[in-house]
Design a protein that fits this description.
- The longest helix is centred in the last third of the chain and has 22 residues, at 355-376.
- The strands form 5 sheets. Strands 12-13-14-15 form a 4-stranded antiparallel sheet. A 3-stranded mixed sheet has the order 1-10-11.
- It contains 16 helices and 15 strands.
- Helix 5 (89-95) packs across helix 11 (208-223), helix 7 (115-127) packs across helix 9 (164-174) and helix 12 packs across helix 13 (239-248).
- Among the domains are: 112-196, Orthogonal Bundle (Arc Repressor Mutant, subunit A), CATH 1.10.10; 284-376, no CATH class.
- It has helices at residues 6-16, 27-34, 44-50, 58-66, 89-95, 97-111, 115-127, 135-141, 164-174, 193-196, 208-223, 228-235, 239-248, 272-277, 308-314, 355-376; strands at residues 2-4, 37-38, 71-75, 81-85, 133-134, 149-153, 159-163, 178-181, 189-192, 253-258, 265-268, 284-287, 324-327, 330-338, 341-346.
- By secondary structure, the chain is α+β, with helices and mostly antiparallel strands.
- The termini are far apart.
- Helices cover 43% and strands 18% of the residues.
Length: 378
Amino acid sequence: MIRATQAQTAAFILTKNYLSSLKAPHLLGLVHAVVVLPGAPDLTPFVAASARLSNFSPADLLDALYQQRTLIKSPLMRSASAIVPTERYPLFLVATARQRNQDANSEFRLWGLDNSEVEAIEKVVLAEEDWPASAEAVAARLPQSLVRPLSQTSRGGRVSTTSSVALVLHWLTAKGILGVNQENPANPLYAPLHYWYPDLDLTALPGEAEAQAALVRAYLAAFGPSTEADISFWTGFGKSETARAVGALAAKTTLAMVEGIPGMLLLLKEQADMLASTQPQPVIKFLPADDPFTTAHRASRSRYLADPQQQRRVFSSTGAAQPAVVVNGQISGTWQWSGGQFAWELFTEVDPTYQPFLQAEAERLAAFLGTWSSGEGD
């Protein structure tokens, strides 16, 4: 067992996430280090990368996704949009298949789409050979009896709309059958996954248990020490799946006790000496909504904010995180970018000597967002 302070643990994870003075060597190395970049909200992957790389341009991420194709964007953990290294995609696809199947079935029921409709649309879509195609082009190829606009009204009166075709295209993308090019977000283009990624082999896939254990190991490498509840929340695994994956890694993990974080935490044995030798240094970062760092420990979110009221200012009931001002691993405030204007505020006391660092980081991010709004990020 290893013991560590909360400040030491935060500094250790910040360093592994390239949020300290050490920057990532390149974009692909960064995504490997944090396991996934969130694919949404739209700004998040770009702002997250800019915080960890020197001289990052939004075009770098678009190039990796849609030209070099070293990265792939797809629904994965918790069925959320995720950007991962293409070479790791098959592993993550298998690891998260069960939850995505369950989520898709729930979504179909919610919108009143039955299995026979889904199967009929799939059959026609997959028989096509003229790719890539927009959702509108796909819909135009289908018998009109299969093209249904769908809507529902919330209790508050908000109307949401979609279509039978949009739901099935999303489902085929989530299954790894179709891929989507979102280089132009206003007109995403669909095609069979092998059209976009001809060298990606999905025929020799690992079993679910092996894939889930590998995903948990990658998570611990990036964000350990962590609780099992953190692992479950981040991966989307049920308790039994999490326990199985953790059990498979028993020989590679050790227990850790972190001052201020309740319970026992899991840490990779190979990282124990690194944690023990970590010396906390000042780290000031403005991170985007749902940044990998702020969403890695949603079950033990008290490590970011001890005050429950402040936690509710940052985290939603589902664990989504607001854009955050992070000081030495603690969330000390929030920021927003709206209408081309950047604003930030602190809601906790911060050492006055950190003010120049806060101002410098705010100016860095404002400049990056200004570049984005001027057209480079379109």
